[in-house]
Write a structure and sequence with these properties.
Blueprint lengths: L13 H56 L8 E2 L2 H4 L20 E2 L14 H21 L2 E6 L4 E3 L12 H7 L4 E6 L18 E11 L2 E10 L4 H7 L1 H43 L13 H52 L5 H32 L9 E2 H9 L5 E5 L3 E2 L3 H17 L5 E8 L2 E8 L29 H11 L3 E5 L6 E7 L4
Parallel strand pairs: 2-5, 9-11
Antiparallel strand pairs: 1-7, 3-4, 3-7, 5-6, 6-7, 8-10, 11-12, 12-14, 13-14
Helix pairs in contact: 1-3, 1-6, 5-6, 6-7, 7-8, 8-11, 10-11
């Protein structure tokens, strides 16, 4: 019965499993870091959006305060470039956040205000005072800082630096040209930075946004806002239920990795180990494929275990049956020798000379049969364990003609072919088949050599009594012979088949009208 086989399907390799596990383990901290960076950038983005909204409201209030105090708006402020006024001409003039925490440079702390010769007008100072009161009321909620500048960059409201200038600051300078500008700067704090801040770039920065106050084609001032973004850890604590959910997801991924690794490696390896112990305990036996192998290497190993167990079982059966046959074959001549020896010992003086000669002849024949059996057994053992060297080649025609020269009934014909087989093995094969043919009464044995694709065929055809249909299936069985009385051992064809198969060939019995024909197929040296 054929041994079971492992189901063929796609299975990842051990290397692929280990690479995937290691990459996943590596990705978890990198993913967490990326999550922090993205989340932190989102907080900065939201903070800038809030500053823009607040600055837009303050700019609108400042424009209204100025309009109430100005007799004419045509001459106030600075005239803007066409590029700066292009957006203002539209019905809507949205300002989007510009800061990218991962891309933008972190600037040094904001420079302090500087003295200036530009004097703010009384109108702008009065309007700035009104807006400052509005801002201070909102500041308790927004936590933002504000400095209100006139069109020259001079402070007109928001803090104690009235009359000083921020025109030299980078973001303010761009806003004075009519363009919104924002930057991130190092944060100055009187409190020591906590140790956990090292994982967050946003914990030590402050966001500055300069919003131009434009009226038609003129610049009336700048609303200069600032605020520290929300700390990411504090923000996560505020949304701890969501953070807990993320932690559960990470834990689930970790457990999944452990389960996948265990299922694909540890489980099948333990099952294969138990199978190996079972094979060692029983010296073979049939193994069934595992339900799950996990990886291609383990599936290959499992199939090897099944094949090994099947081979051990077949070998054990062969040795057991062979030992039974050997004991039977040796028992008959040994019994005969022992009986003849006992009779000679007990009745040597009473026996007639012809009787003594007959018993001695029986002993000699049985001894010769035992010797023939031992020789054949040695040949069979050698053929079963032959290790073919596929570098060995032989020219079939001259080698077989050399063997045939010892028999007048044998003729060789056919192609000149070089076969991959040792010359000694070819001699044993040919001699056994020729002897069998002559023993079956053949008077002519023809050896025909034919070259085929990558192989060559040798046909041994005789005109003897042939092989009966009932015996055709048993001719390769050990000790099966129809010529036992003439010294046949029943091992010749078994030796032939072992040698042929050891050299990668095949032997088959052909259908013939007369005699018997065996075809030997061997690999050609050119194949």
């Amino acid at each position: 019965m054929a041994s079971p086989s492992v189901k063929q399907k796609y299975r990842p390799s051990v290397a692929l499993i280990l690479i995937a596990v290691n990459l996943t383990i590596l990705a978890l901290p990198l993913g967490s870091l990326l999550f922090f960076r993205i989340y932190e950038g989102r907080l900065v983005h939201e903070t800038e959006a809030e500053l823009i909204s607040q600055a837009a409201v303050i700019a609108a209030a400042y424009k209204q305060a100025l309009q109430k105090r100005l007799d004419s708006t045509d001459a106030y402020g600075l005239e803007l470039s066409p590029e700066a006024t292009a957006q203002s001409a539209k019905r809507y003039d949205p300002v989007e956040p510009q800061i990218d925490l991962a891309r933008d440079d972190l600037l040094p702390p904001r420079p302090g205000p500087a003295a200036t010769s530009a004097v703010a007008s009384v109108v702008s100072l009065d309007a700035g005072l009104d807006v400052t009161q509005l801002f201070f009321d909102a500041r308790r909620t927004t936590l933002a800082g504000m400095v209100l500048l006139d069109h020259q960059g001079t402070v007109i409201g928001g803090n104690q630096s009235i009359g000083l200038s921020f025109a030299h600051v980078r973001e303010v300078r761009r806003a004075l040209a009519g363009f919104y500008s924002s930057v991130i700067r190092e944060r100055i704090s009187d409190e020591p930075q906590p140790s956990y801040a090292s994982i967050s770039r946003g914990s030590g920065i402050r966001l500055f946004a300069a919003f131009p106050v434009k009226f038609e084609k003129r610049l009336w001032g700048v609303v200069y806002m600032s605020r520290t973004p929300n700390n990411i850890l504090k923000h996560l604590y505020a949304f701890r239920d969501r953070a807990f959910l993320v932690a559960l997801v990470v834990l689930a991924i970790t457990l999944l990795i452990a389960w996948v690794t265990t299922r694909t490696l540890r489980g099948p390896i333990r099952a294969l180990s138990q199978q190996a112990q079972g094979v060692a305990a029983t010296k073979g036996g049939n193994l069934e494929p595992l339900a799950h192998y996990g990886t291609s290497e383990l599936a290959t190993l499992g199939q090897s275990f099944i094949d090994m167990a099947d081979a051990l079982e077949k070998r054990s059966t062969y040795i057991r049956d062979f030992a039974t046959h050997v004991s039977h074959e040796f028992k008959t001549p040994l019994t005969s020798i022992r009986g003849s020896a006992e009779l000679l010992s007990e009745h040597l003086e009473d026996m007639k000379p012809e009787e003594r000669a007959r018993f001695l002849d029986n002993i000699q024949k049985d001894t010769s049969r035992l010797k023939a059996l031992v020789d054949r057994l040695l040949e069979l053992a050698k053929s079963d364990n032959v290790v073919p060297l596929f570098d060995d080649t032989v020219e079939l025609v001259p080698a077989l003609e050399n063997i045939a020269s010892g028999y007048s009934q044998v003729r060789v014909e056919g192609d000149q072919v070089t076969a991959r087989i040792a010359e000694e093995s070819l001699g044993i094969i040919a001699s056994n088949l020729i002897e069998n043919a002559l023993g079956a009464g053949g008077t002519e044995v023809i050896l025909t050599i034919v070259e085929t694709t990558n192989s060559c065929e040798i046909t041994f055809k005789d005109n003897g009594s042939g092989i009966s249909p009932g015996n055709r299936a048993k001719i390769y069985d050990a000790f099966f012979t129809t010529k036992r009385e003439t010294g046949g051992t029943g091992l010749g064809l078994g030796i032939v088949r072992s040698l042929v198969e050891a050299h990668g060939g095949e032997i088959s019995l052909l259908e013939t009208a007369e005699g018997a024909a065996f075809q030997i197929t061997l690999p050609a040296a050119s194949g």
